Amino acid sequence: MAGSEAMTRMLWLQGASCGGCTMSILESGASGWFDELRQSGIDLIWHPSVSEQTGDEVADLLEAIRDGRERLDLLVLEGSVARGPSLSGRFNMLAGTNRSIYHWLLDLAPLADYVVAVGSCAAYGGIPAAGVNPTDAVGLQFEGSDVGGALGSGFRSKRGLPVINVAGCAPHPGWVMESLLALTTGDLSGDGLDAVGRPTFIANHLAHHGCSRNEFYEFKASAEVMSERGCLMEHLGCRATQAVGDCNQRSWNGGGSCTKGGYACIACTSPGFESAQNYLQTAKLAGIPVGLPTDMPKAWFVALAALSKSATPRRVRVNATADHVVVPPSRSGDKRSP
Amino acid sequence: MTRITVGPFNRVEGDLEVRLDIERGRVARAEVTAPLYRGFEQILEGRPPLDALVIAPRICGICSVSQSIAAASALRQAMGVMPAPNGVLATNIAHAAENAADHLTHFYIFFMPDFARASYAAHGWHSAVAERFTATKGSAARDALPARARLLETMGVIAGKWPHSLAFQPGGTTRAIELGERIRLTAIAASFRGFLERVVFADRLENVLALSTPDELDRWREGRDGDFAHFLRLADALSLADLGRGPGLLMSFGAYHDADGARFRAGIRSRSGAIEALPVAGITEDVSHAWMRETSLDPAESRTVPDADKADAYSWCKAPRLAGQPVEVGALARQAIDGQPLISNLVTSGGSNVRTRVIARLIETAQLALSIEGWIKALRLSEPFCASSADIADGHFVGLVEAARGSLGHWLAVRSGRIERYQIIAPTSWNFSPRDAEGVAGPLEQALVGTEVGDAGARAVGIQHVVRSFDPCMVCTAH
Ligand code: SF4
Ligand code: SF4
Question: What is the span of the domain harbouring residue B72?
């Protein structure tokens, strides 16, 4: 391919995935993702959902990479690595190759400059690893929050980095593109990752930051049933004070977010989010939510909650349990000189 | 006779493998393998029933709203609640937006790029098609992807995000739409119509939907711009109407229910063209050629127990049957059963084939654009969007919806407040099913027979057209 030497060569594979990460990334770019990639200097050498090459053309490409005849800069995996049954990988074969995705990844990952897990499945195992984990699904380098996974704790790609985990189910398209581009520009290094491999430019924020319900949170004015406007933490399961991600500082699909949409954050960027149960109900002990903000001592929370509840303005209290604004902000501040 | 294997099969959702026996340059027999199993039904067992709203959508990133709605519908029966009318409308808007976005993705990203392949370079039409539709490089994607993203802004208003939202609940939807948001929805719907009328059809949607016979369609496309007319000319040049003949029996679970019933009605259409009521109780799943243990044929009673070493099995997909017959599902079935004039006439004269499957999707997209406009207007902003939920009863419940690719069912059994069993039959489980105990092949396996392969072997582009004309979703298929 002309000009391809100077471009970053990216191969995207799908393991035990729902394809949702690809559906998300296809929303990226003002003139479409393909233009955006080209403009950013990324040559998408193959992607299962969008590329022309099929069948033996793909098998030939993968063999050429494996045998060192073709260069691989970025290896992206979407979906968990289904290792079962009995480490055969047969729950997820790459069609036409008589070889499992698990085994293809073992071959290809060491040959890439960088290996990127897109989505919580590829990062930590995700939904396929829930419950009895029928397919022995793991992430590329994590099994839940335990380092290891398909490639093992010692794995480093050719540039010396562990797997970069762009967690989320599905991740925001911006998280994926910004992580890929930060790698191509050399701006993402090992110390730009947190303890479970997530880029800190995303993971240094909490999903709660910037939520449109923050005023309700401050006063512990809580929604009691779905579709009410109040904070979703006390009763309806919101985990955003513990889940990392700048989810509420970005616009999803032109302006949404989970909590804006009226439902709890289920901490989809966290390893093991799939093992929770009763997602839309807050687990409580003696009336106090079990999952408190990570850095807030329980006694404080209880004292603050009691104080702020007693000081809640009527507007906030009433609107918290309504689905439309019932009490608008006071107009007293609107005085205009005639 | 020679046997060839085709795969990996890209530009579908997920991956699939097709094994073909070739005789005198044509497919004599086909076997379709779903090569991925994740075990959602096993994962759901034992959980609180409402967890299905988190787990089930994640079966599929491309039809996640459909999966949500199927789960919510089964749970609604378990709760015995009536959804708020606004919630039903908002669900319809989001569901239609997802299905229309899927149809666009299929046409522009998955299906059309095959005509830009070098193997067609000798044809006079090739250079224009290559400029427009070459995978990742053609000009069409620069139009279609932003239009798709804009349409999916519907989700930012109604569902928080897409894919994978928790906005679709048994009682309705979780965000009450305000006036400004309704106006935004209206603007999104207007840009969607604008894209369809400018780029896809080069005509008013009303004019497109007024076409009712194959002859009218042929006259309409003469000299017309737009990607639909472009496809119609290609379809004639390559005789796509003679390619990929389906098994004949069509089914739809009915779609977009509101106070007036279903926008697209439920039913079956027999080979003779008779439309009949949907016999839900006739649905079974046979595992004779799936890597699955036998439990029960009835999805309300069966479980999913993988057995990777089972003899004579060749797919992770079970074989759904209706009264023992393989069935084709999808936009073509939905529109033929609903009596859409053009699609009904095309199916009557030529059966289901590659050309008509694609036409049905685009005609349906035009209809959805109009329906979305109507549902947005029908929202009553001062009324609730979500009815309160209620306790979940023990028992058997079924959620039946139409995803973009066809009929999707969730069979839920609740016992002592937990999910006892959960069975999912997805659209591509029907279309790409393996053989059953009688040896009857699935719809794609039948549709591939007779396809010309010539000297191209596994690279024969006709195979690609037939497979992709079904818009398969292989991640749903075995789930
Ligand atoms: S709903 Fe969740 S994210 Fe929003 S303020 Fe409450 S705790 Fe924070
Ligand atoms: S708000 Fe929570 S559930 Fe939603 S995307 Fe962010 S981390 Fe995931």
Answer: 37-476
**Pocket of ligand 2 contains residue A119 by CB under 6 Å:** no
Pairing of strands A93-94, B395-403: unpaired
**Is the residue at A292 inside a domain?**
yes
Q: Is A50 on the interface with B (CB under 8 A)?
A: yes
Distance A177 CA to ligand 2 centre (A): 18
Task: Look at residue B3 and tell me if it is in a domain.
Answer: no
- Strands A93-94 and A142-143 turn out to be unpaired
Q: Which of B404, B98, B86 minimizes the C-alpha distance to B253?
A: B404
- Report the gap between the CA of A160 and the closest CA in chain B (Å): 31
Nearest to A26 by CA among B108, B331, B200, B406: B108
Give yes or no: residues A189 and A318 share one domain.
Answer: no
CB contact under 8 A, A26 and B109: yes
Number of folded domains in chain B?
A: 1
What residues of chain B lie within 8 A of the CB of A323, using their CB?
176, 384-386
Domain of A265, in residue numbers: 205-322
| Atom 8 of ligand 1, nearest CA residue | A208
Give me the tens of pLDDT residue by residue for chain A, a chain 338 residues long: 444 568 999 999 999 999 999 999 999 999 999 999 999 999 999 999 999 999 999 999 999 999 999 999 999 999 999 999 999 999 999 999 999 999 999 999 999 999 999 999 999 999 999 999 999 999 999 999 999 999 999 999 999 999 999 999 999 999 999 999 999 999 999 999 999 999 999 999 999 999 999 999 999 999 999 999 999 999 999 999 999 999 999 999 999 999 999 999 999 999 999 999 999 999 888 888 887 777 778 888 888 888 888 889 999 999 999 999 999 998 765 555 55
Contact (CB, 8 A) for A77 and A105: yes
ipTM of the complex: 0.97
* Local structure of residue B13 (DSSP, 8 states): B
Nearest to A171 by CA among A150, A198, A196: A198
List the single best residue of A10, A23, A104, A269 to mutate versus B (max B Cβ within 10 A). Answer: A23
Q: Hey, is A318 helix, strand or coil?
A: helix
What is the CATH number for A244? 4.10.480.10
CA dist B4 and B6 (Å) reads 7
Residue B119: CATH number of its domain: 1.10.645.10
